[in-house]
Amino acid sequence: VSAGNGCGHTLLTPHSGTLSSKNYPGTYPNHTMCCWRLQAPPGTSLLLAFGDVDLEPSEHCAHSSLLLADPQTGTAYGPYCRNSVPSTPLLVTNSSTVTVLFNSTSHRSGRGLLLSYATSQHPGMGASSPGLQRHPGIPDPPLTMCFSVYCPAGCKDIHGDIWGNPSQGYRDTSVLCKAAVHAGVIADELGGQVTLSRQKGITLYESAFANGLRSKRGSLSEKRLVFHKVSCLLFPACDDVLEVVAFNASSWWYEVDVLGQDRSWVAERAALSTTGHSWAAEPGTKAAWLELDLGTRRNVTGIITKGSSEQYNYYVTSYHVSSSRDGKNWRPYRGSSGQEDKVFEGNADSQGEVSNAFIPPMVARYIR
């Protein structure tokens, strides 16, 4: 839980999380405070990674400070500010409960703080700060070597850029865990272990919109990061495009164009590779749906959507997904949280492709 008027981006879960001061990485406000209470499952302890602590220096950190307290053992860490920083970027506690207190008085400068945490079940925590920065105990991987890092929940909205997309990989100057969310290998609301390899760089990293994030277009980097859905030693073909044997829809649009010619926006035209016009529901339809029959039960790891074409500027901005094994009983997709039906972010124009990953994947024959 968190409380106070100085809290910035915060996502706290029992196993990991990310928190920052208000306005981070801009200057934090005067006369604010925030108190976060981190609670891990019984029998585990908390590991805290200091991504950034940039509070205006003062004697005994009196003007602005970060203080951590372990109520179970009575241990305190800090206060920290710019002239009194943590001695190591990773703090290993002996407690399942830690209170993080940030406060400021009058000051002129300072980005504030960015901190992430995980439980002792996930010791190899990756950095949430920009670039492929490593914490002690995680060796710098050699070129083409496979390695694994735990990414805390809440990486999606931290400061820092990413370059690339899931298919081509990412520049190694990208924010590592933010790129993992973009690649669809972890859910931002849960975090998780990521497996990746460092490979030879490429000339150009194209921009892509995926899992609620847009990557930037970028030029050559010496090395790139490639994420793998399972062990990269196996290189499974889990990113293959599944064949759709039949399409169905709630309705489709029969249009008469300006030349008096009939045009049918039927369900079969929904295939991603179709040129010209696509599928469209009958105008005015409420709760329209498109159904894909995969022919047999398959492991479905994600979906790619695109608008109709440049000539017909139509596209879907958001959607729900349901699955069925028999075509009769349908189960709404609720994602990793499992609390409510997930709303997927769709397209913003009719030209670009948008990818959304299913975390966890679904086993189904029919997708609606």
From TrEMBL:
GO terms for cellular component: plasma membrane. CDD domains: CUB, FA58C. SMART domains: CUB, LCCL. PROSITE patterns: CUB, FA58C_1, FA58C_3, LCCL. One of its GO terms (molecular function) is signaling receptor activity. Gene3D superfamilies: Galactose-binding domain-like, LCCL-like domain, Spermadhesin, CUB domain. PANTHER family: DISCOIDIN, CUB AND LCCL DOMAIN CONTAINING 1, F5/8 TYPE C DOMAIN-CONTAINING PROTEIN. This is DCBD1 protein. It comes from Horornis vulcanius.
